[in-house]
Write a structure and sequence with these properties.
Blueprint: E1 7-13, E2 19-25, E3 28-34, H1 48-63, H2 76-81, H3 99-102, H4 141-149, H5 163-170, E4 177-180, H6 187-196, E5 201-206, H7 209-221, E6 227-230, H8 236-243, E7 248-254, H9 259-263, H10 289-295, H11 298-309, H12 314-325, H13 333-344, H14 348-356, H15 366-376, H16 379-393, E8 394-404, H17 407-422, E9 426-429, H18 438-443, E10 451-457
Parallel strand pairs: 4-5, 4-7, 5-6, 7-8
Antiparallel strand pairs: 1-2, 2-3, 8-10, 9-10
Helix pairs in contact: 11-12, 11-15, 12-13, 16-17
């Protein structure tokens, strides 16, 4: 029972962790911090001495050091070492009775502090690894929707391009066999699987082994099963032979680099974020973009930029790169970007201001990075091989559809389809390439340069 003269006066919220309860005796007020329990809030002691001791002990647990005295600057471990043997680690003063322990309740230490994630400068995360909500779309769907509503692609994902147009043109239906030669994030593959139904079959290829595995797991989580192979699309015929598949109804390939690769600085595809100048889609490729820049002559580099990217300033950029590498190797993406600005005579600060006003597109370094990526991954040679073997892989009446992103690729596809039509290999081809709608470009600006062409085997 409560001692005479010790009456509760007020009970209110003292701070976020405890209740502040005030007692009065002889016109003195003693604050007591109480920890919430399942039984409610109650004082663990009922004498003035116990109340004073409890307050001091709980205050020390909260701050982990005394607020007064010669030991106030010492950490708790050093204060414990000053205690007599048998009392180290105990918060009960020598000879003092602990009412909590006498009640048979085990003493509990302070709750462990929750590990905090690393903070970033500014209001919104800028770097790839800081966008933890975008990298976990299943846990943060609202964030993904918000990012997409602003016309941006969430980090670690990819927005498929012209999905409805592709499905309609290729006439995908139940029971068919489809070869998705660039599985990527699986955006087109997921729609293929829905249309194919349980009786259909999807064969997925991708040169990026890590992304291939992640996509297979993601689609499996969504309830889809498929056959996946780590292979360049040029190896389609070989994969089909290994699987014992005589022919497929549909061949599809999206020839652009995926957003997952562009957005991750460590892959070296982005001129907007600094990273190693790598650009290898397949880890099995030996030479990186930095290796090629160190080996190519000025004439070879100039020709490369013109043929693979239609870069008008190809000669000036090649000359600037060769002069710079004579002093030290070019190993980072931002190093190369600065050299391109220099070769074009563009002030980076003024360019940034122009971009903020929506006055500049595309980025001055875009074509150079495109040309290097195509070179590193031997993309045009792989495309030529796919165009060569496609008729052999298609069943009669089967269709091939390809999404391209620059004029060099589109020229190869257009010429191959026209030649196939002329020789009777194909019975129909699209007269003009399909392009993304204005709405799609607004929602996904990366779709702007896309072109889709298809052909149907005789």
């Amino acid at each position: 029972m409560r001692p005479r003269g010790l009456e509760p006066l007020t009970c209110g919220l003292g701070n976020r962790r405890s209740i502040l309860l005030s007692y009065e005796r002889s016109h003195e007020t003693l604050p007591l911090h109480l920890t919430p329990t399942s039984a409610g809030y109650k004082a663990p002691a009922y004498t003035i001495d116990d109340l004073a001791y409890t307050l001091a002990r709980m205050s020390e647990q909260d701050s982990d050091k005394p607020t007064h005295g010669p030991d106030s600057d010492k950490p708790k471990s050093e204060r414990d070492s000053d205690k007599p043997m048998g009392e180290q680690g105990s918060d009960t003063p020598a000879g003092q009775h602990d009412p909590d322990k006498s009640a048979g309740q085990p003493e509990q230490g302070p709750a462990p502090k929750r590990a905090r994630r690393k903070r970033y400068a500014g209001t919104y995360p800028r770097r790839f690894e800081q966008r933890y909500k975008e990298l976990d779309p299943q846990a943060h769907p609202d964030t993904i929707q918000q990012v997409r509503s602003h016309g941006r692609t969430p980090a670690g994902s990819h927005v498929p391009i012209m999905v409805d147009e592709v499905m309609t043109a290729l006439a995908v239906g139940p029971g068919q066999v489809v070869a998705d030669c660039t599985l990527g994030y699986g955006g087109h593959a997921e729609r293929f699987l829905k249309l194919l139904g349980p009786s259909g079959k999807l064969i997925g290829l991708d040169v990026d082994g890590g992304q291939l595995q992640r996509t297979v797991e993601r689609l499996k989580f969504a309830g889809f099963e498929m056959i996946a192979r780590h292979s360049n699309f040029a190896g389609l015929a070989k994969v089909m032979g290994e699987l014992g598949v005589a022919g497929v109804d549909v061949i599809f390939a999206d020839l652009g680099v995926s957003s997952m690769q562009v957005d991750e600085p460590a892959r070296g595809f982005s001129y907007k974020q600094d990273g190693p100048l790598d650009m290898r889609m397949d880890a099995r490729i030996k030479l990186s973009a930095a290796d090629h820049l160190a080996r190519l002559s000025e004439a070879e580099l100039s020709q490369l930029l013109w043929e693979l990217a239609d870069e008008e300033d190809h000669a000036a950029i090649a000359r600037t790169i060769v002069l710079r590498r004579g002093r030290s190797p070019i190993l980072r993406t931002h190093e190369l970007t600065r050299l391109i600005f220099q070769a074009k005579g563009i002030d980076p600060a003024k360019h940034k201001q122009a971009v903020a006003k929506g006055e500049v597109a595309p980025h001055p370094a875009a074509r150079t990075f495109q040309a290097l990526r195509i070179l590193v991954n031997n993309e045009l040679a792989s495309l030529r091989e796919l165009l060569r073997v496609a008729p052999e892989c298609l069943l009669p009446g089967g269709k091939i559809g390809l999404v391209t992103f620059h004029s060099g690729e589109d020229r190869l596809v257009k010429q191959a389809f026209a030649a196939g039509l002329g020789h009777g290999v194909y019975q129909a081809i699209c007269e003009e390439p399909l392009r993304p709608s204005g709405r799609e470009v607004f929602d996904n600006p990366r779709s702007r340069p896309a072109r889709f062409r298809w052909a149907q085997k005789a």
